[in-house]
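Hi support team,

I've been running sequence recovery on a batch of backbones for a student project. Most finish fine, but this one hangs at about 90% for roughly twenty minutes before it completes. I'm not sure whether the input is malformed or the queue is just slow. I've pasted the structure tokens below so you can try to reproduce it. Let me know if you need the job ID as well.

Thanks,
M.K.
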């Protein structure tokens, strides 16, 4: 029976008792306990039910590898399912509930599945639900969805807050055991900036539990001394409760820190997601003990030998009064000795090996512990807790030789190095037949752009399972000299042995009850069935059986599953290979992933540096993507249309000022930047001279126009690409997608600088006069011709001036650092007061661009339009052999002369056409609907021309100029003549002055 021992417990504080509940029952523990330790101390062996068969499940491990003991934690808005009890620190008032059981944990109706296990083998979903097809949606799917998952989904809004942070380091050490500390100290003494992450609340790992001595002192003392030395160094940062979840290319690491998981209700973020860039990563992540396969190895009370040792030494918890040890290696003998020293009974050690002759077996025999060589477990007896084990010969046919009464079974099948973080970015493994494990292959480590490995494993993670070897290996990984490596000694060595799976020739009826993957209910027989059904690839077997999926990610089941599959296929384990390790290493919370991006700031409204000035000036706002831009600035009793007309007229006659900060600004830089832009744009950008601007069109791979803007050549290797307002994030993602997925070997760097710069358009006949008054930069026509740019200081502010125009007037767009945006805006207002300066909004901008026949992405484009439809063939280079979308634009339906093309439209009576109105055509379309031959894309009243103007897409439009079309709106026909789309200053004299 599991109880708290009277003495011991190196991690608990008996002076600080804590109360908590499990399924409504009040229980007690101590500060320093994990939930698992506290539950065991209260003899709560049954924690939950398994996923598929609803079998009783208890605590199997003591760390992040725990597959069974998941509970719902918290209440109301702080409830969260699937919390691992072995890694959750106990806190006062913790409310926990069991999962996957109804109506309750002890009496679960779902356990009927266990009686039908023969009819629910691997892949039964695929075999059962394929036919009849009509039944899936109405019969099978609701049942499958209802039974999916283990925990229940929270219904209330999460009351906690989360945050994200960034860090940069020369060396990142993942793991705060003795190997990680040794590696960190060696790297730090070499002068490198070191960051150490430890996922638990304590430093030192397993060494203090296993009685290791380092440099002549107990492991606990050496750990405390080393941590103090590291903490005193200015180039070292130590973080506990921080789990490295994933390693990606270029030394990019994502980690989750449990900031207030152990302090609920504190004014702190619950989790913090770290995004870390490291020059080099040392994975000192240790090794995980493997379970053994025997019938009933999932019954509550069966646990890993190392876990049983942890509960006794760390938390003074008895895993059972009588514990049978079953092992294939010497390490489990440490557990037998620890239990014996704590006053607990070890009736027998069942060793699969024919001869157990090491130091540890000798110590066990000296304590009077019975050691049975060449023995294994045929079956564990019990239901909701262990009652006894049936012993068989390891080399026999599963015949029961004797039955031993016990209430706990501690099993050890060897150790598997934790290579997840090494493998995630592409590191390869090699099979160590002597120890029955995969280890990192140093010759095939993940390498960076310089060709050097950026991830190395150290200590047990590299396969060095003995303390002395692990410390020497870690010290070398940190860059230390061999002579200065810490020296470790153990009470006795524990050599490993080749992996052993189950009693040879075990009957089929037993294989049906031997569990490999405890979380997903995968049995030995499931993997053997998959092999018989042709799933010879380990990846196919994984998906067919669900072996090593979910949060387990192969931690407990990988090697055992590979061994069974290899045996079924009649080939060695290396020939079978391993599955792919994917991040995260252990689950991270959705809250940490989202962090502050929730509620009102899930997609925060974006404001330019001049936003408050616009609001004070009475701006009427228009949403443009996530930006808010002034639509117009009504004065007095003006209507919006009157304000727009005033702003247009004043800009054309005097001087207008526009806040254009929302324009996308993406820097593209690098040796291959020119050819990259030549592929993105329809025109040649690599030939653009430094100091010049060029209008560019960007198409999707299907040929459709997705963006336009002015591209500026800043330097020999740098271009600035302007995008439409609200389009910067989308276009930047488009660039990165092609760089990362297709042209990954091109040397190109992109950066979204949209919010780094404010941008102000100074527009109108008096624009040059205003800039000359501000002083500092020559903006004459000779010094700054159309489609050129210059840099300098304007009004005492660093500025970059582009001579471009979206209005058709003399125009300059001035980019200044965002922090100077408001100051520059006010300087313009002050200097231009007597020049008729007046700010204008987005609607005046649209009217003026339509008067000039300029297109607007989103108005003239709808995802089906190509540049040729808009009369923009002049912006497509004839010299370019290829660009994104070129071949798509050459398809027959893209070159069909019947395509709708852009034209101008003017109503016969001067009225304004409704936006989006269609022009009917005779007959019906192929779908039997009324045929159409055109539609309006942009329509405005032009105060410059004194009438309505519009642009639209019309079938064979340019060929039909002068023809009158009837547009129909609300049952009323509106005649409009097809005309040239440029209504104002077709020659461009105004913008070129």
């Amino acid at each position: 029976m599991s109880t708290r021992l009277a003495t011991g417990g190196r991690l608990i504080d008996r002076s600080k008792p804590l109360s908590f509940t499990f399924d409504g029952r009040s229980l007690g523990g101590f500060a320093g306990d994990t939930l698992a330790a506290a539950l065991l101390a209260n003899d709560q062996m049954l924690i939950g039910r398994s996923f598929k068969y609803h079998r009783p499940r208890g605590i199997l491990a003591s760390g992040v590898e725990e597959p069974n003991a998941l509970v719902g934690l918290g209440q109301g808005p702080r409830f969260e399912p699937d919390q691992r009890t072995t890694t959750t620190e106990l806190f006062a008032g913790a409310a926990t509930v069991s999962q996957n059981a109804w109506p309750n944990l002890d009496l679960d109706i779902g356990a009927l599945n266990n009686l039908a296990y023969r009819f629910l083998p691997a892949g039964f979903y695929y075999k059962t639900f394929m036919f009849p097809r009509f039944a899936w949606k109405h019969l099978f799917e609701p049942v499958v969805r209802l039974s999916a998952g283990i925990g229940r989904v929270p219904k209330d809004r999460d009351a906690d807050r989360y945050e994200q942070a960034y860090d940069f380091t020369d060396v990142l050490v993942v793991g705060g055991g003795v190997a990680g500390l040794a590696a960190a100290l060696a790297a730090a003494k070499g002068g490198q900036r070191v960051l150490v992450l430890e996922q638990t609340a304590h430093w030192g790992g397993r060494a203090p539990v296993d009685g290791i001595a380092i440099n002549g002192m107990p492991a606990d003392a050496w750990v405390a001394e080393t941590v103090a030395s590291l903490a005193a160094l200015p180039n070292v940062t130590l973080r506990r409760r921080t789990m490295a979840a994933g390693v990606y290319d270029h030394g990019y690491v994502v980690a989750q820190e449990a900031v207030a998981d152990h302090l609920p209700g504190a004014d702190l973020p619950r989790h913090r997601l770290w995004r870390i860039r490291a020059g080099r990563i040392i994975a000192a992540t240790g090794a995980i003990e493997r379970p053994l396969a025997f019938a009933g190895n999932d019954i509550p009370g069966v646990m890993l030998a190392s876990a049983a040792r942890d509960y006794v030494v760390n938390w003074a918890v008895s895993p059972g009064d009588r514990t049978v040890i079953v092992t294939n290696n010497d390490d489990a003998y440490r557990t037998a000795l620890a239990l014996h020293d704590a006053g607990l009974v070890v009736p027998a050690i069942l060793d699969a090996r024919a001869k157990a002759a090491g130091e540890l077996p000798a110590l066990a025999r000296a304590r009077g512990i019975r050691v049975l060589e060449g023995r294994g477990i045929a079956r564990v007896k019990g239901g909701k807790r262990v009652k006894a084990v049936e012993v068989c010969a390891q080399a026999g046919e599963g015949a029961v030789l004797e039955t031993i009464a016990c209430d706990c079974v501690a099993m050890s099948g060897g150790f598997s190095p934790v290579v997840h973080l090494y493998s995630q970015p592409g590191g390869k493994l090699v099979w160590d037949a002597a120890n029955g494990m995969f280890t990192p292959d140093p010759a095939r480590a993940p390498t960076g752009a310089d060709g050097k490995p950026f991830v190395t494993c150290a200590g047990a993670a590299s396969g060095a399972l003995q303390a002395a070897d692990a410390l020497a290996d870690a010290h070398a990984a940190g860059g230390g000299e061999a002579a200065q490596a810490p020296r470790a000694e153990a009470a006795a060595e524990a050599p490993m042995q080749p992996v052993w799976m189950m009693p040879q020739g075990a009957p089929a009826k037993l294989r049906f009850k031997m569990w490999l993957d405890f979380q997903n209910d995968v049995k030995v027989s499931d993997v053997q069935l998959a092999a018989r059904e042709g799933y010879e690839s380990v990846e196919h077997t994984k998906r067919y059986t669900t072996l090593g999926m979910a949060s387990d990610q192969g931690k407990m089941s990988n090697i055992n599953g590979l061994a069974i599959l290899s045996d079924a296929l009649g080939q060695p384990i290396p020939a079978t290979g391993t599955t792919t390790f994917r991040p995260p290493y252990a689950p991270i919370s959705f809250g940490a992933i989202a962090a502050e991006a929730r509620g009102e700031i899930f997609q925060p409204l974006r404001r330019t540096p001049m936003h408050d000035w616009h609001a004070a000036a009475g701006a009427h706002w228009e949403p443009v993507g996530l930006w808010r831009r002034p639509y117009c600035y009504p004065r007095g009793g003006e209507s919006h249309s009157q304000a727009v007309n005033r702003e247009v007229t004043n800009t054309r006659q005097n001087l207008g000022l526009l806040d254009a900060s929302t324009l996308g600004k993406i820097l593209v830089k690098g040796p291959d930047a020119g050819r990259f832009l030549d592929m993105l744009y329809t025109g040649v950008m690599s030939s653009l001279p430094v100091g010049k601007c060029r209008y560019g069109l960007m198409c999707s791979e299907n040929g459709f126009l997705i963006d336009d803007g002015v591209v500026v050549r800043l330097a020999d290797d740098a271009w600035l690409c302007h995008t439409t307002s609200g389009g910067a994030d989308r276009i930047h993602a488009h660039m990165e997608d092609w760089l990362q997925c297709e042209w990954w070997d091109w040397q190109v760097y992109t950066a979204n600088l949209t919010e780094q710069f404010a941008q102000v358009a100074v527009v109108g006949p008096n624009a040059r006069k205003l800039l000359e008054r501000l002083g500092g930069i020559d903006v004459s026509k000779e010094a700054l011709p159309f489609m050129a740019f210059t840099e300098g200081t304007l009004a005492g502010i660093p500025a970059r001036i582009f001579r471009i125009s979206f209005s058709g007037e003399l125009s300059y767009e001035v980019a200044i650092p965002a922090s100077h945006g408001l100051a520059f805006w006010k300087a313009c207002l002050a200097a231009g007061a007597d020049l008729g300066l007046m700010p204008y909004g987005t609607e005046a901008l649209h009217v003026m661009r339509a008067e000039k026949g300029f297109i607007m992405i989103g108005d003239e484009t709808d995802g089906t339009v190509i540049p040729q439809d808009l009369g923009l063939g002049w912006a497509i280079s004839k010299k370019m052999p290829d660009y994104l979308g070129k071949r798509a634009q050459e398809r027959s339906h893209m070159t069909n002369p019947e395509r709708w093309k852009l034209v101008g439209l003017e109503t016969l009576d001067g009225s304004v056409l409704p936006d989006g109105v269609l022009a009917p055509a005779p007959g019906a379309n192929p779908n039997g609907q009324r045929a159409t031959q055109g539609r309006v894309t942009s329509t405005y009243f032009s105060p410059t021309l004194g009438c309505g103007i519009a642009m639209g897409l019309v079938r064979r439009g340019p060929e039909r100029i002068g023809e009158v079309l009837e547009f129909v709106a609300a049952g009323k026909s509106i005649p409009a003549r097809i005309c040239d789309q440029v209504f104002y200053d077709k020659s461009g004299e105004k913008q070129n002055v």
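--
Follow-up from support: It reproduced on our side and the slowdown came from queue contention, not your input. DSSP finds 26 helices and 50 strands in the chain. No action needed from you.
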